[in-house]
Amino acid sequence: GLNSPFARIADVSIDTVDRVIHNRGQVSKKTMKKILDVMDKTNYKPNFVARVLASKKKPRLVCLIPFHTPENMYWEAPLEGIIKAEKEIADYGVTVSYSLFDQYLPGSFEKKTRDVLSDHPDGVLLAPFFSKQASDFVKKLDILKIPYVFIDSKLKEANNLSFFGQNSFRSGMLAAKLMKFSCSPKGTIVIVNIGTEYEDIHHTREREEGFKTYFINNTPDIPLHVLNISSEDINNMDSLLEIPDTDISGIFATSSAHIIAKYLNNKGKGQITLIGYDLTNDNITFLEKGIIDFLICQKPREQAFRGIYALFHHIVFEKQIRKNNLMPLDILTRENFNDYLEFELNN
User: Fold this and answer.
1) How far is CA 334 from CA 331, 339, 342, in A?
2) Which domains does the chain have, with CATH numbers?
3) How far apart are CA 337 and CA 346, in angstroms?
4) What is the pLDDT of residues 184-197, one digit of tens each?
5) Measured distance CA(131)–CA(203) in Å, rounded
6) Which positions fall inside the HTH lacI-type domain (predicted)?
7) CB within 8 A of 35, min separation 6: which ones?
8) Which residues make beta-bridge pairs with 124?
9) Cα separation, 167 vs 303, whole angstroms
């Protein structure tokens, strides 16, 4: 039951907690003080606990995130964060289910939103990948009064309970500053967007805009070239990256940097500065080889872990939840990624 961990913290029986909450039966002053102290420290609300005890209701959370693929392993990390949180709150009777979609197919996302709505959960954790479809979905959640938390990116006009993720625009500016310091001042810088046949994958667009803004404001004379590669064109990198009359000095990959790195490695073009995102296994391989120079990371496990806890605290304990929670923008290189990864996996 929901009060069993609480009873364990106070080191008393569940029946004793029940007697204090409902003010019935004999409980010693010492035991009552112990229970009330724990209620105070854990922000328990006796009237709410009583309702939960009476209803035997078990809150159900649903996670609507992309499934990870060999081409993009990023979403394995948030899944690990969710599973960790799920294990920690299981004693409170909270259950977590998964509705995973294809991050390149709006239709896949839309189908999963219908499944979630028909399930009518108590809370939703989601990555709002496709702006239009995600906006339609959260409006329906608003009508049903189902709280929801965004991770990875957010919709600008939404009534989300909370958001855990990076400021995509500022991360693009950070990448541009790294590029300016590390690549040859002579030559073109290419911004590569992969899998962007759908224009409303907005966080990669915000990264691009932040990157361009930095260069326009600071070094407007350096030429920038934007290259949009659809998921079907990934194997045709030769023709795409052979830009006429251009000497490429740096590449900024708004996602899936390992795909560009593999191409550069095969062509012996490792001297081109390459900056990307996220500490996936594929990216680590090329970071170690020196093909990827910098990775900007955003604590994806922690985003998902804290997102689940936000829903849990809101639904079970009726706590006030902070709306915007921006992750630090971590800069990783061949020299420091091992310590970072070890810390991430063990905390």
Assistant:
1) 11, 11, 14
2) 4-55 (1.10.260.40), 60-166+299-345 (3.40.50.2300), 168-297 (3.40.50.2300)
3) 14
4) 888 899 999 887 65
5) 10
6) 7-55
7) 10, 12, 16, 17, 20, 27
8) 62, 148
9) 13
Cβ distance 240 to 206 under 8 Å? no
pLDDT of residue 236: 64
Kindly tell me if the per-residue pLDDT of 140 is higher than 70: yes
Residue closest to 255 by CA, chosen among 277, 225, 288: 277
- DSSP code string of 270-298: TTSEEEEE---HHHHHHHHHTSS-EEEE-
Question: End-to-end alpha-carbon separation of the chain, Å?
Answer: 28
225 and 246 Cβ atoms separated by less than 8 Å: yes
Query: Across residues 289-297, what is the average pLDDT?
Result: 96
CA 84 from centroid of its chain's CA atoms: 14
Question: Which residue in 43, 52, 44, 36 sits closest to 2, CA to CA?
Answer: 52
Please check the confidence at residue 231 and state whether its pLDDT lies above 80: no
Strand 273-277 to 123-126 pairing:
unpaired
Q: What is the pLDDT of residue 186?
A: 83
d(CA 96, CA 173): 36
Tokens 């909270």 — which residue? 94
CB 149 within 8 A of CB 126: yes
* CA atoms of 230 and 108, how far apart (whole Å): 17
Helical residues (DSSP H) of the chain, grouped into ranges: 4-10, 14-22, 29-41, 46-55, 76-89, 106-119, 131-144, 168-182, 202-218, 237-241, 257-266, 281-289, 300-317, 337-345
What the block records as the tokens of 283 is: 């990216």
According to the model, what pLDDT value does residue 239 have? 62
